[in-house]
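Re: the request from the purification team.
They wanted to know what the chain is likely to look like in 3D before they choose a buffer screen. I agreed to run a prediction and write the result into the notebook, where they can find it.
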Amino acid sequence: MQLHHVRVHRSDENLARDGQLAWKIAEVAADPVEVVDDVTEMVVNRVIDNAAVAAASLTRRPVVAARSQALSHPVSVGGDGATVFGVDVARRTSPEWAAWANGVAVRELDFHDTFLAADYSHPGDNIPPIVAVAQHLGAARGLTGRDLVRGIATGYEIQVDLVKAISLHKHKIDHVAHLGPSAAAGIGTLLGLDAETIFQAVGQALHTTTATRQSRKGEISTWKAHAPAFAGKMAVEAVDRAMRGETSPTPIYEGEDGVIAWLLDGPDAAYDVPLPERGEAKRAILDTYTKEHSAEYQAQAWIDLARKLHHEHPELVADPSKVANVVIHTSHHTHFVIGSGANDPQKYDPTASRETLDHSIPYIFTVAFLDGTWHHVGSYAPERAGRPETVALWRTVTTVEDEEWTRRYHSLDIAEKAFGGRVVITLTDGTTIVDEIAVADAHPLGARPFGREQYVQKFRTLAADVLETAEIERFLDVAQRLPELGPDELQHLTIVAAPGVLTSVPTPHGIF
C-alpha cells in the first residue's frame, strides 16, 4: 500500500490533477490487476449475504416503496435493464433505479457487512449499483462474472481505504459520502473505463452524496435504509455523465471550498489515505466482516456476550429485578453512537422505531440477555420492547467510554482491533458480575467465524419464508458460479419471491 497525503489547497496553488485524491482513486480503479482467489471467494460470500438480507426485507414498507418506485420506470435505452429483488427477471428497470430498489432491500434490516475504523461503513452497499450496471450492459459490452467480481473488489477497496483515513461522523456527515466515490470507482473498473472518466465520476458522486448524520440521530427514520441506496443511484448517474464527457468540481476533496475545507476538518486539515500501488491486488474486502444478528455492527459482540450471560445466570433471567444496574465499558464510537453517550432519550423508549432500537445498545443488550437469542423481527416487535420487566432492566443499562477499548477499536492491526468491551452488572445485594468480549462470534477472529457454509445457511434461513425452495437453490447455484458467469447469466443474479408474497403487501403510489 502507498499513503496518499491529502490536504487543502488554495485555488492559486493549482493542485495538479495527478496529486488529487479523486485521481489516485481513479488510478486504482483503472488498474487491470487480477483479483486473487481469496478475494473472489469473499465477493461471492457477500453477494449471497446481500441477497439473504434483501430476501428477509422484501415485504417491509421501505423496500416495497423503493421497489414500486423502481418498477415505475422503464428500461433505459442502450442496454437490457437490471433486475429488482423479488420480481421476475423478465421485469426490469433502468440500472440506477434497480440500484435504488436493491440498495434499500439490502440495507433495510441493518444485517449485512461492515467495516469500522476512522469512520463507519457497510461496504456491501457497493454491490447493488455495480451489479445493476453489469446486468444492464452485460450483453452490450460482453461483461462477465469475472468483470463483476473485479468491480466489486474495487468498490470494497476504495470504501475501506477512505474509511481507514477520513472521519465523516466527527463532523456529522453521513458515512455514505464514502460510498458514492467507491461505487463510482467500482463501476469504472467493471466497465474498464479510463482514469480520466473515473476521476470525473468519483468527483460527481462525492459532490452529490454529502449529507448530515441526522438520518442516524434521535428518532431514526426509514431514510437510514434509503441513504446508501441513494448514494449508489447517484454513482450510476455520475458514471453515466462522466462517460458522456461531463466534468466534476475539481479538486473535490482538496479545494479551498471543497469537502475537506468546509465539511470535514477545515483548511488546515491533512489525511494520509492508504491505496494499493499499481499492480497490487485489491484485498480490502478481507478486512470487512458480516453480521450474524440484525443490529448495528457495534452491537454484534454485545448480543453474543448477553446470550452467554443469559445461560450462565438463569436466576437473573427469571427475576431481573435482582439487577440494580448494568454498565457497559466500551469504545468512544459505541458509547456516543448507540450508547447512552448519544443522549438520545429515544434509545430508552419502548415505542421507538425499529431503526432507533437497532441503534440502542441498552435495548439490544437487555433483550439478548433476557431472551438468550436475537431475531431480526421478533426482537424488535413492539410487544417485545414494551414488556414491563424489559423496560425496567433496560433503563438501568448505561455505557461509558473506556480509552483502551477506544484504542483497540481504531487499531489497524486486525489481530487487536475490537468492537466489544467489558460489562459490569451490579446486583441489588451489592455483588457484581463482570465479563468482556472483544469481537463478535461471527468475526474472523471470533468464536464461530463465518465461512461459505454460514453465508449459505444465513441465506437459506432468511429466504425460507419468501422464496420457493427451487428458487433458493437456483440462486445459490448462480451466485457460487459468479466468477464463471457469462454475459447472459448476469441477469439471473437476483431472487424472485414466491407467488403471493409481494401481492400480500399494499403498493404505495406517488408521482411516478
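For the purification team: The longest strand covers residues 323-330.
Please add any questions underneath this entry.
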